[in-house]
Amino acid sequence: MIEFGGRVAVVTGAGGGLGRSYALELARRGARVVVNDLGGGVDGSGASTKSADLVVDEITSAGGEAVASYDSVAETSGGEAIVGRALDSYGQIDIVVNNAGILRDRSFSNMSREELEGVLATHLFGGFNVSQPAFKAMKDANYGRFVFTSSNAGIFGNFGQTNYGAAKAGLVGLSNVIAIEGAKYGIQSNVIAPAARTRMTEDLLGPMADLLDPEQVMPMVVYLCAEENPYTHEIFTAGGGRYGRIFIGTNEGWFAGRNVVPTVEEIADRIEEIRDISAYEVPLSSSEEIMIIGRALGGS
Ligand code: NAI
Q1: Cβ-based neighbours of 197, under 8 Å, separated by 6 or more
Q2: How confident is the model at residue 299 (pLDDT cuts 50, 70, 90)?
Q3: What is the pLDDT of residue 204?
């Protein structure tokens, strides 16, 4: 049995959709949970205490422990207040699920700076704002689990989502570095790329929507939050009952030779070898990629 007794979790954007199901399950398994939600619309406009309160009520009426937080992850002070809510209420913070998010889709030519900034502020800066104060507390306790919410739209790309895609890809970088810096303190960080029917996606999923229950994403995320999870620095995908791993790898490539500057024509001649991904590795830091270069140099 995977239990969270004695653990304290913050789930951002937990007033509905995916975040709600994570918060409910973490609480059901014994975690004390900070249910954070600004309570605005899908585009981030407005605010309300209602959605976070409802989830806290659901948790407490089922015998669990939770408190609400209505702060915005998009503000530095909001991130501090959300983590402060965990520390003031429960004296510790063990788990952060960075899940809050908004959409402001527009094709690249028409995207405004406000649309870019609003989406970066919520997802990317939001992940930073909440995780930095949490990381400091976790370091002192020598334990922590982060989950960052990315998206296939950021990792693979999607029409009309340059702002969202940039933010979601940025979160992969944020999580990777936190995983490296946190390792010696028992802090792990992973990424989830979910696919689920929520208010954010109900108009986008088409006929598959009925088969993409947010509850199906929940077990993967809750596992990543568990002490039993030994993995860090990874990206997982979950949707419609399929669970998998997404990874960023590099291939064998083509080695031109030590101190050799190939011509542009040689690159053209070798481009398929340079692109070939039939053999690849998944480096877990920039130095691991440099080692691959070093190996090629050593072998010349
Ligand atoms: P949702 O709209 O139901 O949930 C997002 C929640 O975040 C909302 O309750 C919203 O009020 C809250 N929120 C927004 N801005 C906030 C802020 N500044 N501070 C605090 N809370 C804020 O949508 P869903 O689908 O549950 O999304 C959860 C996460 O999963 C998001 O990060 C989303 O981008 C991501 N995602 C969802 C996918 C899906 O298929 N549903 C696909 C890929 C990623």
Answers
A1: 205, 209, 210, 212, 213, 214
A2: low
A3: 86
Q: Mean of the per-residue pLDDT values for the chain?
A: 97
Catalytic site residue 164?
yes
Give the residue whose CA is nearest to atom 18 of ligand 1: 72
Q: Which residues contact 172 (CB under 8 A, 6 or more apart)?
A: 148, 150, 154, 155, 191, 235, 248
Q: Which numbered atom of ligand 1 lies nearest the CA of 239?
A: 40
Distance separating alpha carbons of residues 56 and 16, to the nearest angstrom = 11
Q: Which one of 21, 35, 98, 200 would you pick to mutate in the ligand 1 pocket, going by the greatest count of ligand atoms within 8 A of its CB?
A: 200
Average pLDDT over residues 274-288: 96
C-beta of 21 in contact with ligand 1 (< 6 A): no
CA of 109 to the centre of ligand 1 (A): 25
**Beta pairing, strands 95-98 & 8-11:** parallel
pLDDT tens profile 226-264: 999 999 999 999 999 999 999 999 999 999 999 999 999
Are both 77 and 182 inside the same structural domain?
yes
Residue 220 near residue 238, CB atoms below 8 Å: yes
Tell me the residue range of the domain where 205 lies: 8-246
**Residue 175 and residue 221 in one domain:** yes
Q: Catalytic residue among 22, 70, 164, 231, which?
A: 164
- Tell me if 228 is assigned to some domain: yes
Confidence at residue 300, expressed as pLDDT on a 0 to 100 scale = 46
For a pLDDT cut of 70, what percent of the chain falls above it? 99
